[in-house]
Write a structure and sequence with these properties.
This protein is an all-beta fold. It has two domains: 80 residues, no CATH class; 145 residues. Helix content is 2%, strand content 38%. The strands form three sheets. Strands 5-1-6-8-9-10-11-12-13-14-19-18-15 form a 13-stranded mixed beta sheet. The protein has a four-stranded mixed beta sheet with strand order 4-3-2-7, with no helix packed on it. Strands 16-17 form a two-stranded antiparallel ribbon. The chain is elongated and about 60 Å long.
Length: 258
């Protein structure tokens, strides 16, 4: 089953809350999908107010939702609480994309706005472009962020990637900004480019693998390791090992390519 949502490109200045675009659509008729509630500011609208909705291969075994259009970044919370199936965003993704997802797969062909993958517990989020701030992070006021699953960003990422990470894996193929892995507790963050300043600040557990970057004084250098394997991920080369953040009596690990 393939559900195609073609944007009518009629969103104005207020972003649209579209948290209903998830696996629950697979159990609906075309008429029911068109009536799914979305919110534009304080106004309740329907999915069909913003998208032309069609269903293809209705009896097929696959479960796929495809979004197309020029203004997809204005739709917040796409794929929220996704538990199964796949969501494909053929453009840029809006804020909170993949928020609280527990399964399935989301692929964003462009860039993704802030807070994507927040509070994930499973599934996979792939961003082909850049990710903005607070990727896989904790919601403000919460003690734990992403708890499981996998996020892969093919470009760069903003500030506080994996803030309060409590599980799962985040891979950034480009660079990151300030405070990657701040307050990190568990899990794995991989930065294939350059880590921004204060990487691992106040982390107490988990592992950050860094190709390039400068570490803070709160990390104690240990020995070196060759071709490490962490959380099922293999890495080639020689790495220096650091433990910290000692300011927090932390036992987190940073591996810095030698």
């Amino acid at each position: 089953m393939k559900i195609l949502l073609r944007s009518k490109n009629n969103v104005d200045d207020i972003n649209v809350e579209a948290d209903g675009v998830n696996h629950q659509l697979f159990g609906m008729t075309l008429a029911e999908i068109k009536k799914v509630a979305v919110h534009e500011g304080n106004q309740e609208r329907t999915l069909s107010d913003f998208f032309d909705v069609t269903i293809e291969d209705e009896k097929g075994k696959g479960r796929l939702i495809v979004l197309e259009g020029d203004d997809l970044s204005k739709f917040k919370r796409i794929g929220e609480a996704l538990a199964e199936g796949e969501v494909q965003v053929n453009g840029d993704g809006g804020m909170y994309c993949g928020y609280r997802m527990s399964g399935g797969r989301i692929v964003v062909e462009g860039n993704c706005d802030a807070f994507c993958g927040m509070d994930m517990s499973g599934g996979e989020l792939v961003i082909k472009g850049n990710a903005s701030d607070y990727l896989g992070a904790a919601y403000r006021g919460e003690s734990a962020g992403m708890k499981g699953g996998r996020i892969t960003v093919h470009g760069n990422a903003g500030v506080e990637v994996g803030s309060r990470l409590a599980g799962g894996t985040i891979v950034i193929k480009g660079d990151t900004d300030l405070f990657t892995g701040i307050h990190m507790k568990k899990g794995l963050i991989v930065i294939e480019g350059t880590a921004g300043p204060r990487v691992g600040a106040q982390m107490t557990g988990g592992t950050i693998v860094v190709s390039k970057g400068e570490l803070m004084l709160g990390f104690k250098e240990g020995g070196s390791i060759k071709d490490p394997k962490i959380e099922g991920e293999g890495f080639s080369g020689d790495f220096k090992t650091f433990t910290g953040d000692l300011v927090e009596n932390g036992k987190g690990t940073i591996l810095l390519m030698d």
